[in-house]
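Methods — Computational structure assignment.
A single polypeptide chain was analysed. Its primary sequence is given first, followed by the predicted tertiary structure written as structure tokens.
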Amino acid sequence: MCESTLEFDACFHHEYNETIEDFGSQPEGFYYYFEGKRLPYTPDAILHYIDGTTKFHEYKPYSKTFDPVFRAKFVAKKEAARVFGTELILVTDKQIRVNPILNNLKLLHRYSGIYGVSDIQLELLQLIKKSGIIQLDDVAAEYELSIGETRSFLYSLMNKGLIKADLNQDDLTCNPSIWCNA
């Protein structure tokens, strides 16, 4: 369970990151030492990567990272995590709340509950495979579908990993280029 909207937004990046096998919020914490005191700490997230590595994340607004006390405590937490055997990484809102990717990931998430692949989606997949790369509007025109229907069919396929778009550059609410997953 996420404790902040920043943590919630970070989860969208994790959900669609192909190098992350699993992730969770508020994992089991550990202790660190600061100014002679033993203090408890719970990372905001734990990420398990497909290469077998595990990392902790701490999410903070960029403006908070300039505080000298925060910085000193973070160094102590990072060292304690290293001793624990896991890297602790500071991730700021400037890294998480980047668009169009964050808005694209949120939009794709809306299509995550659609199961199966319909006949029309199979036809659209064939068109995309045959085309190599195609604009969403061109798919809609080819099948005489509304833009809304086309988005629904294609974004569901994208959510399943069957087709791709450049989520970093193309705004999915416009006319993205799409192609089949290799």
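Note: Helices lie at 5-15, 68-84, 93-96, 101-109, 119-131, 136-143, 147-159.
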